[in-house]
């Protein structure tokens, strides 16, 4: 077992803003032109772990769009996410990654069965691993949030699922779940940074178990929920009674467009809501909105109002405003997750990696939503790897 | 050893807003007319501890003003801190506490030596304990923040201190420290909810050790610093680099008047600043103001702007606004501290109670400022009492 | 013509929070126990006008609920809107107003035709005027916002409307419009403080013209839109380009319940939106939400984020948070509108009173939405009365 | 009289951020690569005025530092104020302006009398006007805010002043006033965009009158005070009683460094305070701070809390946060002021131009601080030019 051998990071949605920032940033870290700000795994207390070094991470991926990475990186530079000097430093190397990107799966363009589609996806990953002599590959989903996909009886067992997938023209899995299936079939761990269905189907969890593979997710915690997971424990630990917690999210870019549309937002809003109730120990009134505000570009903004009650019923309040670049917040976590999941795989861990709950709005394998406790759990888990 | 025997709570500044709210609230809790919102020690996970029950706490105290408690409680009701129905429920019993209040020490009215003054203060407490058959008394300072008091060589040893105190007309200790001295001499534990000097002099710490007494402090964490201690770890745990953390505090009431005056604010601002540097692991630009805004009455408000840097140097920000009633935030903590300190005394603990750092801006006996870690430490410590 | 003769104020929704606060406040002003804070018409520069004095205003009204005014006033006192000492000062006089309240119209309980219902409503008002020897009566709608009512061909002409109203069991007008019809038939001016349809139907505007009556509305401007109408001109006058203006409203009380329901909110949101586009001179991205947050009680809160562009395309922003008591903001305006509309009626003005646009989110008779210009227009108009 | 003839704009502090942004922006406007966002004088309703066109403005100036303009522009581009494509478009032309810059006056490096120094400054301007055949020159101060300068008896009359100035080694005028003196002596109008003393001395105002020259100032209104001048009238016009108005300003760049220093901030804070009292019609508690937060770079941020009282004493509040680029806010106003002041000069106006109060925190020649009224006054005045 050698966690530090060349490791693959295969990105689903590899030309998206998060992926492009992660790729650009990884190249910049390798080139030594930026510090590892935002990369938790680069903090001193993880130094003794045998995590893959920046040099050891090889990136490839699937996407359904074909805009060249270099062009996406230039757009992100215009938008203020990638400084010009960083872009200059990595420009040439983006093409190397470009050559590792393959066409993703989209139901509208898939003429055959989902079995065939999954095989193609898995082959892309296997070829990638073989070409680069990779010890293992982490498949990580950073594609756009999908609309909610209906539950089907076939999701309950692997046999039923695979039978249904073999029927030409039938769409029994949403793209994120097909990607997870392909990853597992290719012997890869799977991480979902989105709230899409992904691996969260009994049949797929069963497959992961059978393949002895670890997985993690879901929905990267990078903004409003991140702050909530630091603040909500304050009220609980001080025996203050939260009466309502209202939130508004303003998103620009493609994310705003996708998520302000109610069908896609469904999974996102549900994922945000679950955490709050757990954090506070009870349900509170918690209206929540996601608005599309295109002029914000790559920025996102959240405003929350917490109304709470103290001693003798005194009414008090806390408001916060969070303004950040979504991709700059998410990208270093993508690199962290690649390193930690790879190390977990190398260490023989299987099933949901609850210790990575620190990174997610809707963590699998744990009910812990409190940020400080999650950070401690991550550190403790990593120390034992 | 019986932690649940009648226990005294002796308040320095017993007619102030915090003390009056604590007293009124304690009577209301005993009368069963309010829930214990804001009282950490009343949370289920402390149930197994033998903390003094609300019925077991007997309150007395010193103050240099003489406004009757009932009048102070009525003012706090006007100001929105004490609901009218609570005031109605406890009115009669306030007089019982009133009869336990004694005149406090003020250098301007003290004609003799500080030794004499300390003896009188200690006698007041001893009489109180004897009258009520108290197992022990916690002396707790909630008086107004003092101006900074100069360090003197006599503070370094108990012998030198006592020699200086005996000189008529000499003021070698500020009132808070004289109160701490008297408390220790009377065999009582001492808690400082203010940033005043109090027990924090080598001579007094030495006296506490000799008397085998526990003590705790200092400066109750009830607002801006409370939120900071929940939020700052977010940045540290996510490897985000805080560049500046600016804060503004608007205070009404007597607190605003005292603290906006730069001489008194000195110790408060220093106490707030120490914590932030520790929380972030490095010094950051952190301008901080306390303004007197009388129309806010018992309310206080804080606005903070955190400017931070993420992946690839992306500039982002967090702002928060906290609006609360200072006394409603502080009073339940005063009751908590009385219960926990009494239990620690009963359990034979001595010296600074670092596990109570959860309650303080500038905790003695610990360097931990992170709220979640402090909460965990408190729970662990209490479980072992 | 004597504008200062006894004048009636007939409130539709007379037991609601706004009406109860207006009534309680009027009685308190008469009793001299409060200053006229929030009453624009009581400012010195209106002194020379012959507006009805507080003593000259006689109040009656309709409501479909029957909770006694005194009970409603007590609830508002609990909620922090009416100070206890004000309640004490006016308690007896509330019963005098109570005796002037009559049962309002509700389609669900109306068995006959709308003609019959309107006659009953008009008779109530006429009796009220006769009993008190009133020179004139202002009918003012402060009832809950109605769901949108479909446009009908009959709304286009008075004849067609009255023919349809005569059909038993047919509901051709929503309650607010039936109230406006009854008011006009009783020879009264009509003011709509809500976004409901009210008088805004060609048939009713025609009736007002035929009766030579003035009217005003609609939708009282008391919070987010008030601030917007002061701030938006800043951007316009400085040639700054607003790119988006996002808003979130948190409402407690019955208002939150009514308006967070999308059907009722329709008219409210439309009314808020129209103004912003006019103020900025162009449509901007302006997502807007109204959330029901019951624990806020009578308070309401708005948060807006304005994203704008300056010289050389620099991106900048303004956020504001507004926290107020809805009824305390609205009630003095209700009194102002009664005084000004009565004076306009006395002066022989007819049709929409555009000069009262200062008070409304969606002003009739003017396109001016800028607050400063509206204030100047009001002052100029009043000076000429 | 030909307002549109070539006009000079002579900047004091010509290498500062505001000046550099104004110069860069003017060149970009001439090149047609940016719209005139933020330039009030470019709005359609000023089209009929014969203001100097962008092509007609010739720029020169004094500064005591020597960093080349092109380098300063590059720094401002790094800081996000000047977009890279704008910098590219004007780069060559910056050198043309560079050649028009001369060494400014600093008391520490002036060995002779202030009379000599003033003569040199005036000669620089006269040469500039002659070289370019300028009809007139507007001298405009955008240099760093000076420390308060003590009032001297010599400031009271021109004769006394000039006698004192002639004494070698004596510093009877601060640099801003010496610049104003030189401007007037050179027959130029003078505008002060800073809160420094500038022309505001009886002797200099007398000189302006004798020379029949107009002048304007002082202290450009670009942030917190701008918002206040739009919001404060809301409270006044609605008869709401402001109880306190607290403000915090966070500044980066050189401005933060200069102004957070209490000696320099004196004039700035005084200038901010005067306006608020005038706007509200009474003095209110209004604590105000300016903090130096270097990491903000060219950005500035203000947070204000307005606590106010409404009907029946209801306590309510408004908070706002303003985040902007100081230079991007100020630069277009500098160009406006050059155009309007030149037109006023051409039209034969003399003395303080109160109609330009729209641009200033502490306007000369008017007591009007309300933004909407100032905008109307500017438009009316300009229409009559």
UniProtKB/TrEMBL annotation, chains A, B, C, D:
It comes from the Bacteria. InterPro entries: Myo-inos-1-P_Synthase, Myo-inos-1-P_Synthase_GAPDH, NAD(P)-bd_dom_sf. GO terms for biological process: inositol biosynthetic process; phospholipid biosynthetic process. GO terms for molecular function: inositol-3-phosphate synthase activity. Coiled coil: none annotated. Residues 223-327 form the Myo-inositol-1-phosphate synthase GAPDH-like domain. It holds the Pfam family NAD_binding_5. Belongs to the myo-inositol 1-phosphate synthase family. This is Myo-inositol-1-phosphate synthase. The lineage of its organism: Bacteria, Bacillati, Actinomycetota, Actinomycetes, Pseudonocardiales.
């Amino acid at each position: 077992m050698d966690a530090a051998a060349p490791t693959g990071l295969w990105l689903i949605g590899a030309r998206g803003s998060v992926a492009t920032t992660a790729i650009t940033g990884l190249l910049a870290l390798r080139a030594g032109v930026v510090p590892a700000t935002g990369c938790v795994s680069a903090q001193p207390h993880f130094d003794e772990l045998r995590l893959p070094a920046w040099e050891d991470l090889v990136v490839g991926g699937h996407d359904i769009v074909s805009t060249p990475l270099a062009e996406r990186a230039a757009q992100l530079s215009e938008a203020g996410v990638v400084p010009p000097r960083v872009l200059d430093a990595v420009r040439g190397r983006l093409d190397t990654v470009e050559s590792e990107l393959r066409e993703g799966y989209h139901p509208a363009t898939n003429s055959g069965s989902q079995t065939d589609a999954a095989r193609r996806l898995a082959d892309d990953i296997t070829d990638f691993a073989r070409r680069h002599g990779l010890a293992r590959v982490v498949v990580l989903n950073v594609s756009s949030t999908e609309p909610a996909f209906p539950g089907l009886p076939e999701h309950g067992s692997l046999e039923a699922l695979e039978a249904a997938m073999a029927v030409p023209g039938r769409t029994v899995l949403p793209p994120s779940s097909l990607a997870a299936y392909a990853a597992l079939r290719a012997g890869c761990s799977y991480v979902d940074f989105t709230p899409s269905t992904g691996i969260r189907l009994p049949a797929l969890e069963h497959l992961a178990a059978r393949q002895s593979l670890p997985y993690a997710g879901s929905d990267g915690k990078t903004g409003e929920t991140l702050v909530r997971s630091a603040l909500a424990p304050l009220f609980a630990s001080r025996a203050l009674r939260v009466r309502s917690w209202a939130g508004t999210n303003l998103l620009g870019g493609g994310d705003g467009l996708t998520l302000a549309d109610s069908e896609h937002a469904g999974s996102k809003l549900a994922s945000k809501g679950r955490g709050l109730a757990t954090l506070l120990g009870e349900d509170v009134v918690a209206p929540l909105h996601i608005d599309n505000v295109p002029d914000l570009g790559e920025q996102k903004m959240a405003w929350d109002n917490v109304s709470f009650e103290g001693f003798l019923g005194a009414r008090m309040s806390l408001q916060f405003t969070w303004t950040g670049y979504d991709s700059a917040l998410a990208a270093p976590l993508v690199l962290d997750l690649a390193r930690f999941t790879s190390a977990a795989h190398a260490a023989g861990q299987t099933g949901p990696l609850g210790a990575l709950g620190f990174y997610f709005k809707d963590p699998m394998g744990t009910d812990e939503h409190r940020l400080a406790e999650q950070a401690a759990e991550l550190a403790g888990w990593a120390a034992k790897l």
